[in-house]
Design a protein that fits this description.
Helix content of chain B: 55-70%
Radius of gyration of chain B: 28 Å
Largest sheet of chain B: 4 strands, mixed
Largest sheet of chain A: 6 strands, mixed
Largest interface: A-B, 132 and 124 residues
Oligomer: heterodimer
Shape of chain A: globular
Shape of chain B: elongated
Number of domains of chain A: 4
Radius of gyration of chain A: 37 Å
Strand content of chain A: 15-25%
Structural class of chain B: alpha/beta
Distance between the termini of chain A: 32 Å
Number of helices of chain A: 34
CATH class of the largest domain in chain A: Alpha Beta
Number of domains of chain B: 2
CATH architecture of the largest domain in chain A: 3-Layer(aba) Sandwich
Order of helices and strands of chain B: HHHEHEHEHEHEHHHHHHHH
Strand order of the largest sheet of chain A: 5-6-7-3-8-9
Helix content of chain A: 40-55%
CATH topology of the largest domain in chain A: Rossmann fold
Number of helices of chain B: 15
CATH superfamily of the largest domain in chain A: P-loop containing nucleotide triphosphate hydrolases
Number of strands of chain B: 5
Chain lengths: 917, 370
Amino acid sequence: MSGPVSGAVAGVSGLTLRYGRVTALEDVTLEIPSGRMVGLIGPDGVGKSSLLSLLAGARVIQDGAVEVLGGDMRDVAHRNRVCPRIAYMPQGLGKNLYPTLSVEENLDFFGSLFGHNKAERERRITDLLAATGMTPFRSRPAAKLSGGMKQKLGLCCALIHDPDFLILDEPTTGVDPLSRRQFWDLIDRIRVTRPGMSVITATAYMEEAARFDWLVAMNAGRVLASGTTGDLLSRTGADNLDAAFIALLPEEDRGEDSAVVIPPRIRDDSEIAIEAEGLTQRFGDFVAVDNVSFRIPKGEIFGFLGSNGCGKTTTMKMLTGLLEPSEGRAKLFGHEVDASDLSVRRRVGFMSQAFSLYAELTVRQNLELHARLFDMAAEKIPARVEEMISRFDLADVTDSLPEALPLGIRQRLSLAVAMIHAPEILILDEPTSGVDPVARNGFWRILAELSRKDGVTIFVSTHFMNEAEWCDRISLMHAGKVLVSDTAEGITRTKGCATLEDAFIAYLEEAIAETAPAPALAPEALAAPAPAAGLAHPAPQSAFSLRRLLSYSQLESLQLQRDPIRLTMALLGSLLLMIVIGLGINMDVEDLTFAVLDRDQTTTSRSYIADIAGSRYFIEQPPLSSYDEIDARMRSGEVALAIEIPPGFAADIAAGRNVQVGAWFDGANPTRANTVQGYVQGMHADWILRQARQIYGDAATTGSFELVTRYRYNPDVRSLNAMVPAIIPILLLMIPAILTTLSVARERELGSIINFYVTPVTRLEFLIGKQLPYIALAMLNFFLMMAMAVTFFAVPFNGNFFGFTLTALIYVCATTALGFLVSVFIASQVAALFATALLTLIPAVSYSGLIDPVSSLSGFGRVLGEVYPSTWFITAARGSFSKAFGLAELAGPMLAMGIAVPVIIGLAAVFLQKQAK
Amino acid sequence: MNLRNTFNLGVKELRGLWRDPVMLVLIVYSFSLSVWTSSNAAPEALTNAAISIVDEDQSHLSSRITSAFYPPYFVAPQMITTAEMDQRMDQGLDTFALNIPPDFARDVLAGKSPAIQLNIDATRMSQAFTGGGYIQQIVSSEVSEYVAGYRAATALPVDLALRARYNPSLDPKWFGAISSVIQSITMLSLVLTGAALIREKEHGTVEHLLVMPVTATEIMFSKIWSMGLVVLLGSAFSLVMVVQGLMAVPVQGSVLLFLAGAMLMVFAMTGLGIFLATVAGSMPQFALLLMMALLPLQVLSGAMTPRESMPEIIQTIMLAAPNTHFIILSQGILFRGAGLDVVWPQFLALAAIGVVLFRLALIRFRKFLR
């Protein structure tokens, strides 16, 4: 089953990959030996991740050939065959994990994707958790794990199906030394139990790379060299890998002098720059920083080390006044830090963990903005900006946007910005994370100069041991406590270790043993015989697996349950919108205000007014007394209709003289105005006819006729009776479609779509699996809306409820599928959201017979109207509510939509990419 | 509060916006094309209504009536039988069916007031109402022309001089255009500030700001003035160039007074935008919240249908929304030429709501920064 120990597990030749104009890989040819631990080294952005994702089959091959496990990765059949034998852990802490799912749920999901049954999954999860010491965290959400634990969980997820080829992309970046060591120990032990397994790892830590069997050094999309560690060292004549790598680089990329030399500090502890006394920070029950104290003299470079989430950043925030300590005091230059005192901030420069400059401003604009914000005198700014540009070597990039720059230069820019106001203290939170060795060296040279020449006190956190050694003193932090503060040598000596890293790990292990009786690693768990060969790859992978499909359903419903905003949208969104539209878009025009300027004041004039005042449409306001008043009251919107009855109205009528009643109405809102006009004309005609009858008797009726209007299906002509059956189809279209679009777009944006790329799940399983929970939700919504229609809105339902429910079910199958179809084409969540809203709403409102019957449309609108599912469901809804449709009448719409469902899903599946572009 | 910081940060917001092509397109679109299309799309009172006629009279009068229905208000009527009528209406093919009874013309002349039956599919609300009125008018005028020769002077000499003010021809474009400008102001002031804040949060630049000597109030005001300025300029452009210029809609009142009102509106809405952005964790969540917030605000504020036809409780609740007051004041100013003496209560209400929203947003914003 496992390949031979010798030979190649994978090979690429002539491999070239471009993202737009950027070339990520250029003509790479490489053989990766089987059964070995292969390391891929090189700085950020040289194509390591691209190479790994191509090997994993997660990305479309553009040029060249990729052969993995004895087959061409271009070949879909081969990919499908070998993907259960490959495990891929992408870059980024917990990138392919689902943050709201617990450790166990994550593992369970991956297990079921690879076709294990419940008992088998349970067994494997228990084994893996025991082996990695994660058993106590089984039910903790992945988002709440520390970086190291996230990576362990990622590894567990990768190992759950016993892969033959394990691809790890920078699994230990941003992880503390102890977790890093544990991680590699774990891999070693797994390799003992599964000797045939090949591992390829990208890493930025050269000291880690030293323990690999075989190395590939990469730069700028090309392979610089490959071979064993010894090979590389002897070839370059260097004594460590850092130096060897730099020596392998082309001349122009090597930077200046490769070694960083920090001149010794002249000890002068007379002035204390930073002082912490018993700093404590609690978030609820959680103690993030626990009684931390230190004193840092002026001009010192003070290093801060510790795992992710140990409280380093929180401590820094307290020092800068971003956070108020729960207990204890932080002092800068003897003055207590006061969050509301902005003057302290002027003496401190802060560079946060994430690259945090304005991506939309150029390098120069960034510098200028910060200078202004720090209240520098306007005339000094240009000179200072120039000074920073030359000092930090930014002259070539002053007008570039930061995002276009390599990470190393961006870090220099960040530092320049933090230094612009010449602060006396610099607080740097992991400034070199992810930066290549050459750029890191350059960065530290600047720090050294700042400290030694300008007397700037530097407080810096880092994960790199060589950087820690360059600091004057270092503190090691763990779980909110400072374990030790001393010089690097002092720490190493105290623990009697060979290296600083060993000493730190010794401290960490000690601390962990004290705090919690360690979930000691249990090697015996892994030593248990690996599952029988047959079980390891249970699959001849079937073309369709209900288990995989349902695992996506399960995943989707769990995620939905844990996202309050999406869940609210899904459950209450439609009800809220139904109320809004039902009540808001009301065609009934009632309670219009009117006032009268009655210059006649007779019984006749009053009978004319009484006709209007008595109708349910109008409410009489205090009478008017002049034209000016008409103007004023109409202008303020107080009256919508003003009527003027001329003097001598009654007398003129009696005498048969022509009279004219004046009426003015507010035409601002034409829809309302039209209605008002109709009402007034109708009442006027009615009044005249009655008066004429009184005077002339039947002779008055010559030429008259009666228009008997029958409002069918809605005899009371209630707006709601007509609106509600039309709203339900629209809402059942828009909201489910938005939710399904988001579910795919989210995976893409967060990166977990990789799981779809590299696992055996098929497109249809992926889509239908995701669709099921949304269909269930939409049906729940349907019932809620029906209940609300019948009770709250009191709209009578006359049709066959069972038949209508069935029609609705088919309809939501189609609408959820429509969402997928949109998501296939649109990448970002926000764009997908609005595109879906528009793309579903416009055809539904304009071409589905909501306003104009489809029969009166023409051209493209007609064609779209005939096939769009909403047309059929609106007909069915109106028919069921008002026209007492039975099953027979519903059969037509059901059939039409029933054809649409597989067509839409099929289109979505065809266009859905099973690999990244 | 340091005004210089507020100014500098605001300039930064404007630069950021300048580099965001999607937002720029959205702004330009909302204030130009969207105003143009949505006002033109405002349906004429009636278009292409589907009508069929059962003519059992077959007289001169009935054929006059039949030929009086023609596009664009109606499609050419289908001549059908009584039996077909019910079936066609059930299938939703016709919205109107007019049934002219036998001997209709004769009975009209004889003064027997015969009944003519109009069936309306009332599930098509908007067409049902306006169409019913049109049909009544059309039939009436045909009948009265027909009987004109025979009629004795029996009608009362009372005329109704009915005049629509502010929009004499009841051109729906006027209302549509101005409503659409108002809608764009509402939407953009929410989206621009909210999205700007979330973008900063996602990039981690908010935290960065806080270590500098700037306060939360300054940050909020910088976003409000810069995005408010964009929205104000956009609406001024839209009103003067697109609505008044291109579409030749007469604006009665003072555009400056309207813009002053819009300024208060933008102040209130940006506060709301920041508030929503602090509630939402990410851009997609913000977009979802936006959809749930924007629709009720716009639909129930009186922008689309008159406030007075909404239930009392909704009217009361919506008094808390800035839109309601803004719509009253802008309709007053732009359509009816109202001055500050008329709309001052709305100005006052908007300012009060703005201050409350700003305070709430500031409290949330401070927490959000922690």
